Amino acid sequence: AQSVSQHNHHVILSEAASLELGCNYSYGGTVNLFWYVQYPGQHLQLLLKYFSGDPLVKGIKGFEAEFIKSKFSFNLRKPSVQWSDTAEYFCAVNRGGGATNKLIFGTGTLLAVQP
Amino acid sequence: EAGVAQSPRYKIIEKRQSVAFWCNPISGHATLYWYQQILGQGPKLLIQFQNNGVVDDSQLPKDRFSAERLKGVDSTLKIQPAKLEDSAVYLCASSLDWGNEQFFGPGTRLTVL
To answer: In Å, how far are A31, A35, A41, A100, B99 from A15, measured between CA atoms?
Structure first.
């Protein structure tokens, strides 16, 4: 069965620090990869996605993620975080070309950015 | 563009009671999803509709959970009877079609006492 692992459950950073959140998935076939973010009191929203092509994907608010197929990883990065990046971040995967669009989510990483 | 609407936002019930949640997807979105998010976990898909047909309900506990999307627009998710372990946030999402980005609603937080 597909699964997604996010190894960092809680991350605390100071403003301007660099961020990297780990995400690994278990599925050998073609996958689509996503990072979702949930700001306090708000809905889940898409941060960025990878379907195919350039493995370095840029998303909103200066975030980027790199798909490394050999490592089954899709880590999220931001060179300099801001207080407004405080949120919970979820990595998700679905099967590329599958009959359903079912997203398999990781357990999430709670990021707190201290001003 | 209006987003995915859900109601109620919060619900507290006692075990063995019944509860229903409502979802109104983004206009024109053919695909609708219900996810369950238990505290400390990521969302887990319960059921996916394509228009008014079920595409995937493999993780729906069918002995107590049911869902419908009769006219291919709004959807309701029902739990009857509820158990303590059903305490969670129930998220509704929709997408233009099955391969497209999913947009999530605010969720309904259910507490079963």
So the answer is: 33, 21, 21, 40, 37
